[in-house]
């Protein structure tokens, strides 16, 4: 999966992944929900590195499988 971590304007850590089924070409994901184009979850987000200190061990535990999938 072509994916990266993002941090939203609400300081939520999510994964942004390519999504051919979305009209936007990507979706934002958490461990159990997907938002095509990020609609409904965040007004703004920024891509961040996998080792960014804002990503907690808990975030890694719930989201790393999306990056490794």
Please give a structural write-up:
With about 70 residues, this protein is of the alpha+beta class. The protein has one domain. The protein is about 15% helix and about 35% strand. It has one helix spanning about 55-69; strands spanning about 5-10, 15-20, 25-30, 35, 45-50. Strand 2 and strand 3 form a beta hairpin.
Write the layout of secondary structure elements.
Elements: E1 3-8, E2 13-18, E3 26-29, E4 34-36, E5 45-48, H1 57-68
Give the topology string: H per helix, E per strand. Answer: EEEEEH
Label the structural class.
alpha+beta
Radius of gyration: 11 Å
Termini distance? 6 Å
Outline: globular
Uncertain regions spanning at least 5 consecutive residues:
none
Number of domains: 1
Number of contiguous helices? 1
Question: What's the rounded overall pLDDT mean?
Answer: 91
Task: Please count the beta strands (DSSP E, at least 2 residues each).
Answer: 5
Beta-strand proportion:
25-35%
- Tell me the helix content: 10-25%
How would a crystallographer describe the biggest sheet? 5 strands, antiparallel
Spatial order of strands in the largest sheet: 4-3-2-1-5
